[in-house]
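Continued from yesterday's entry.
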Amino acid sequence: MNYRILFFYAFLLFYSYFSFGQNLPQSYDLRNVNGANLVTTVKSQQGGTCWTHGAMAAMEGNLLITGNWTNSGEVGEPNLAEYHLDWWNGFNQHNNDDANPVSGSGLSVHNGGDYRVTAAYLARGEGAVRDIDGQNFNSAPARKDSAYHYFYPRHIEWFKAREDLSRINTIKQKIIDHGVLGTCMCVGYWHTGNIHYQPPTSTSEPNHAVAIIGWDDNKITPANAPGAWLVKNSWGVNWGDSGYFWISYYDKHCGQEPQMGAVSFQQVEPLQFSKIYYHDYHGWRSEMEDIREAFNSFPASGLDWINAVSFFTAKDSVNYQVIIFDTLINNHLYDTISKISGFINHSGFHTIDLIQPFLTSPNNKFHVYLFLSAGGQPIDKTSYVPVLLGSQSKTLVTSKSNPSESFFRHSNQSWQDLFLTDSTANFCIKALGNPYLPLQPTKPNGDTLVCNPLQTNYYTKSVSTATGYNWQIRPTNAGTLVGADTAISINWNPSFIGKAVIFVQAANLNGDGAFSDSLNVFVHRVAKPNLGSDTILKASHCLTLSGDTTGLQNFWSNGATANIILVCGSSLSSTYNAISLTISDSSGCSASDTILIELLDDTGIDEITEKNFTLYPNPAKNEVNIVLPLNISIVSSLKIFNSTMDCISEIQNLVPTGNRIILSDLQLSNGVYFISLQYDHRTFIKRLVIIK
């Protein structure tokens, strides 16, 4: 053997020993994750549709791992229509919206495609649709139908393990996090038993798509080092090991081919957007590698509620910035409507929710600007597309563009129309939303303020022709939405402060779009003051009580507004005195605390304290135990006072059981109360907090 090759494989073996399984299991099978099967049934493809099966197997797996299939009301296991993608991907002789005529040129139907073709189809909102909606191999199913259920991946990411397998753990983690991955291989002479290994020295290109569902670091293969991917095929359950087999980590293409090696379809969910603005019908076909700044201009077709954008990134580790502009005059962008920025770890397709959704103006243009820090700007253009990737011949697929659709510039120079550089090209920048048809609000009406919320009351929107409602909250860490249909409540994040936007979209029974509306909720929080524990104050002593010193307003029950007040026993006229403080911010949000002060002569404190009672639990919900001193045979009076010392309940002549009295089924709302007991010719009082 050539010593260089021997050294290379020795290095791989050494690397695999130290890198495989660091913080990851040595073997993993999505068919049994803590007893759950996260892989859908093996299918049997017709024609050259392996690429559609690889993609849909990955999307179905993600729907299982997230639960979004059942959460959206579907039954059974996820089952998406491979042949709807096969017919309506837009690259083939059956249909290409960018061609004239739209049929007759491009790829042959049932004879190949790839995951970028799939991404273009999904990004346009053409699908995926369910198997029961659009699955027909022999003739084209309807392209669109109001009865179809559409599913959309918010992200599609491309991975490569690299020749030294330095990125293999990234791929493994994506399998754990997001489920099945699409991949590829070359069907040929390299299959032994149920194990496939095409040496890197082979020149044969991939010609088949399959799906990775797990791995085994110790699996022996014909390669010089162990380790293999567990793979789902689309040739039926009678092939291989009930439709499954292994591919070596060191295979030439599986996990390695840049466009087909390992592709993850993530956050697959029911399509939330019925209006998608785009110019790039064929998605990511090439890149302008030296361009960081680009924008697409879109003429608004009506009053649309735009709440997301999507784009492709050609490299890993990319900073992005999106700005929506309202005006383009003399080659300059003005009037910012919305903007968002962030960081993307992995190359691929990405959908980003806008922090500030906006309404388009009918008959006016809006402009979506995109800055990408690395990899250049992906573009759609007329290009040669191979059948899968192994075809010796490539098919020309026509794309089209128009003047004043896509623009770019170098380093803050003047904007240039991309059409003048390539009359078939457009940037892969989209705006996503729904037609705006206002809902009838029933509660609340307009922006609202909530103070120190744990849970708010219902936000209700209803419309007579709606068939279902989708609620969202932004930012997503503001709280959790509870409920569905016409009403929801919000469990707020205790640390959230500021503006939250509540969105609702409702499917229209007439099938002509969706209703949508939004509500701004301003969350203010005022920290509860702390006056300390209830206390006893001698007539000859004074007590200092501190309020808020951060600039909020102080309102004391004795009429004072200072930050600090002095309470002296000589000024108290009652035996039991409740002193309350309410602090309030400029919006009117407030919080309160109360302290109970018992006024005593300068003698007898030890005796009275010894004879006082105790309460538990405190805070309480619906029941509280009163523990009396020993040898108390009767309680002549039990009173319950509210925080302002108004008596709200009284019971006389209670006989304790042992030394206990149990108050059950308390019909008290959350707050501070005082329990007063009269026994042994004295009155004793304790504070009780109710929290339900």
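--- second protein ---
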Amino acid sequence: MDYRACPSLPAMFFDLARQYDDKPAMWAKRPGGDGSWAPMTWREAARQANHLARGLAALGIRPGDRVALVAENRPEWIVADYAIMAAGAITVPGYVTNTVEDHRHILANSGAKGAIVSTRALAEKVVAAARLTADCRFVVAIEPPPAIEDAGIAIFPWRETLARGEAMPDTVAATVAKLKRGDLACIIHTSGTGGLPKGVALSHGAIIANCLGAYDLLKSLGVDDEIFLCFLPLSHSYEHTCVGAFALSIGAQVYFAEGADALARNMIEARPTIMTAVPRLYETMHHRITATLARDGGLKAKLFGLAVRLGRKRYETPHALAFHERLLDRLLDRLVRDKMRARFGGRLKALVSGGAPLNYDIGLFFTALGLRLLQGYGQTESAPVVSCNAPTLVKLDTVGPPLTDVEVKIAGDGEILVRGELVMQGYWNDPEATARTVLDGWLHTGDIGLIDADGYLKITDRKKDFIKNAGGEMIAPARVEGLLSLEPEIAQAMVYGDRRPYLVAVVVPRPEIVDAVAKANGQPTDLARLADDPALRAQIDKAVERVNARLPGPERVRRFLIAAPFTIDNEMMTPTLKIRRHKIREAYGARLDALYG
């Protein structure tokens, strides 16, 4: 693939379809629950994309129009995305976890003229949102649509829309030929960690530039016949680019995971060679693995612990292993690490972590167990990847060097600035926010960092998330929260203390800790009742004290309150599992302030 010469994403897609023809492009579990996987070939994907593009044109979509796309990860998501772009239009992805009001905001903000949805339940939400907007007048439903009378919104079944398009003159090639790298491909709304989501306008060239950078980064692994397991939402810029564009650009086969509960099984079934995920997934896996070993104990746990210790020593001080340790380390590679690699399918070349900072100890844990974990960095406004660790030199406390053709510099106040084709064209319908964020071609990321002697970028925190305490000291909350969440008693945490004399925190205990306290008290498991239980608070207090012992005075948490889990449903987490500080502060602000009384 000549990325620099590629004019647009649909041009790339249809060229690849002609090249790969009957080779499987995407795999999904067959309907009916028999557990088997069904492929969609490149030829079939291109045929459906062509017919859908023509069908959208028949429904009145013209070049430059916006079309929303709300569906869980599935082959039709990819088909719809490329069909929208092949019609000359702009894809506006939406999360399946969005509320009606969320969908209304995205439809209204983008001015979408129509929407493509998957399930009946999603169709009902999107139709309800579309009624509240001036522009969205139709919905294409991938699955049998709901019977909604007098909705003011026309609903068209997927197959009917494909058939309608097939009957129309084929002008897709001519439309695609007019697309240029600078044309808009999509408007991806930020996940809203700090307020109302803004629509990030990304060009075809921005995403293709990311694909070039990803290819140059990974080519040392031998990029050939790759298998991707798609788990993160395709509506997020990370998976949208890494799987929806890059994986296809190298002719990889994409397997769509069934969901979080089935991920472990799907990894063994699909046997991916490359997988992208957010730190929260690695943290969850780390806790499950260590909790199981602590419970079972025995020789297995001892060998596992030894493999981690030697692997850590090999990474941090590679020449310090004694002769007998090197021999033992090789033996543990067979006894322990091969089994760990088998959990991921057995042929994984790289795990790529992005979307949020990865705790160093979590990265080191998986590295010590024989998995290549590459931490990267970016944001929606940069399409999204700015940098990533190279397989030839992994530095777990960094996010790697900038990708090909990406310029990065550090401003006087420590803010990371980015320039290149990957930078967004702006926030849709928000010129003021755009002008504040992109100055003289440089994207002001809002992240604080530094560049080390190897040219690797290191993130210290979000500029706007820094806590300035009453003594004027600047504190990075993510560091403290990360350490708290590694403790076996604590699942999640958010620290608080701007202009205050010390830090306090909202702490979410792990479910098994709550269950054990409830059982000991002969009570039902009800965190609301147990939040002030002395036994539960004592366990959390010990965990907080262990963390405080490793922190300087200003970063120590002096008091805490116990709360229910932060979730997507209660709007305290984004769909990519980052905490929404403003929402947590809204819910617990008064109680946090009371901790200073």
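The chain has three domains: 9-179+223-273, 277-346+349-463, 466-594. The two ends are 63 Å apart (CA to CA). Will compare against the first tomorrow.
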